[in-house]
Amino acid sequence: MSEETKSLNFIEHIIEEDLANGLSKDKLRFRFPPEPNGYLHIGHTKAIGISFGLGEKYNAPVNLRFDDTNPAKEEQEYVDAIKRDVAWLGYTWANELYSSDYFETLYNWAVQLIKDGKAYVDSQSSEAMAEQKGTPTQPGVDGPYRNRSIAENLDLFERMKNGEFDEGEHILRAKIDMQHPNMLMRDPIMYRILKKDHHRTGDTWCIYPMYDWTHGESDYIEQISHSLCSLEFKPHRELYDWFKEHVYDYAANELPMLPKQREFARLNLSYTIMSKRKLLKLVQEGIVSGWDDPRMPTISGLRRRGYTPNSIRQFIEKVGVAKRENVIDVSLLEFCIREDLNKTAPRVMAVLDPVKLVITNYPEDKEEWFDAENNPEDDSAGSRKVPFSKTLYIERADFKEEASSKFFRLKLGSEVRLKNAYIIKGEHVVKDDQGQITEIHCTYSTDTEKKVKGTLHWVSIKHALKAEVREYDRLFMDEAPDSHQDKDFMDFINPNSLKVINAFVEPSLADAAIGDRFQFQRLGYFNVDNDSKPGHLVFNKTVGLRDSWAKQKPKPQQQNKPQQSQHIRPAIEVIKQLGKKYTNLPEAKQERSKAEIIKLAESVSYEDLQPLFNTAAKKAGTRIATMIALGVLLKNGQERNADIEAFIEKALEDKNDILVAEAKTI
């Protein structure tokens, strides 16, 4: 096997195998299909990078398709933001498409399914449908409308489309198998009545297709060869295939290729919250200034903080493509931006915590302009002039009256080099009434060839520009802020995640434009914020020169302890583990486990939890843990559906008193 083949990820292996089995390379097509119901965050960059990366690798088109099937939650604002973010990352889509472009085709195919006896209009209440759908361990039963005549179904569906019925009166369901072991295959909903204007189609439609019906058929219409999605969609693959195989009979000549769905692990990042609901809470409670706050994991927040498209793309490449969920250390993302800016960011001098330095033997009215290298990593970057005078600012931390031999910065009686300028020697200090040093007096030497160990950055007071510097740090102080049983994720907010500093910078920055990035020498990387105006420079700290959090991490041997591993495992996996032991625990420990499950459930999606509805009846502990977690999701706004109602009803009939009690609470 060649080295190139060995380096392929599992999706590329699938594609290479398909090509070897006869798929023409010019038939490869990919897509990134966001729902326009919010802003993209760092988690989305993996899906973006995989699809567009494959497009680049195979010189294949990649569509940007908005799966806009829910007018209640979708807005043009989100469409615009998503397009801006994808373009900023440096990706070019072949076509900008919308599932709403296919509403007429989807409707016509649905009519054909009715004619073929593969779909029917159901007029029951949601409660009745839930009862008939069965449970993960009990097959469903056919409803009273399942065998309506084709003529009646066609009439009702057309009248649904024409707006004759109210929301909730009727739905269109696929006619598959009410006894199917996969509950998603038990006659899933295809259309519902929703009398809301769509951001693109206006009031043309009052019935809207469900995601599972729309998504796969949109892939098919676009002749997508490989439909790539995250692991929570794996249980949906069987339904995806059923739908596409049935519509194939209607369009095989025009649309000969059936797409293949494959799933990859989502991106989970330490010290980071990915839940949109929790990110919204940070905004609403004023913890951050908005969705583009530089501490937020949104793409717009990262852009404002100073991250580059290249650094994010490098990060996604290093993360790779996996089949199993894992947690990536945020320090890898920080490493990528450091590495990128080290090559590209001009070096400048800025002093964030200034103390005045007076060179006593330098002429009062003299000033000089020294050459300063813009970037030692880039020979083409050239140089600039920086002014020098009798009085300078240096960092307060760069001076000590008395210090050990290991302190290589300025101290009384010792010499250091001023970057790009002279060597100075500390002579004495001036203090105020409180004993605070207000001035450091030095002498300078014109012998710049002398060897000294320390080099300091500085700015000339006479020429310095005032600047507002916003020093950002990680928003959370814990690796997994939403995985603790006894604490809210808000308890881990870093109180020092933002410090606003009045600083001084060299005059070359007078014309710095919004978005420009610099290395403040010896301090870190900074960029010009959106709030910056002529005469009022504002800089954001992107990242320090070194990982300041590394020293706070446990030693390697500590990281291998069992109690540490729980904090980096996906929450759903921890819930399952707690469930396995639940019924064997004494009452006090059950209460502690329940509290932990409730906490973990805050970071679990319905897609994570739903497969556990199929847990065998004998595994009561897992079913109890699932019920507890479901209660949290419902409390946080998860809509009840047939699967949920069936799971609850089955639990209420169980012999396990604890499970029955938990089911009764919801």
UniProtKB/TrEMBL annotation:
Record keywords: Aminoacyl-tRNA synthetase, ATP-binding, Cytoplasm, Ligase, Nucleotide-binding, Protein biosynthesis
Residue ranges of every copy of the tRNA synthetases class I (E and Q) anti-codon binding domain listed in the record: 455-529
The keyword Cell membrane is assigned to this record: no
Record GO terms (molecular function): ligase activity
Ranges of residues in domain Glutamyl/glutaminyl-tRNA synthetase class Ib anti-codon binding: 345-444
Family: Belongs to the class-I aminoacyl-tRNA synthetase family.
Entry protein name: Glutamine--tRNA ligase
Organism of provenance: Psychroserpens algicola
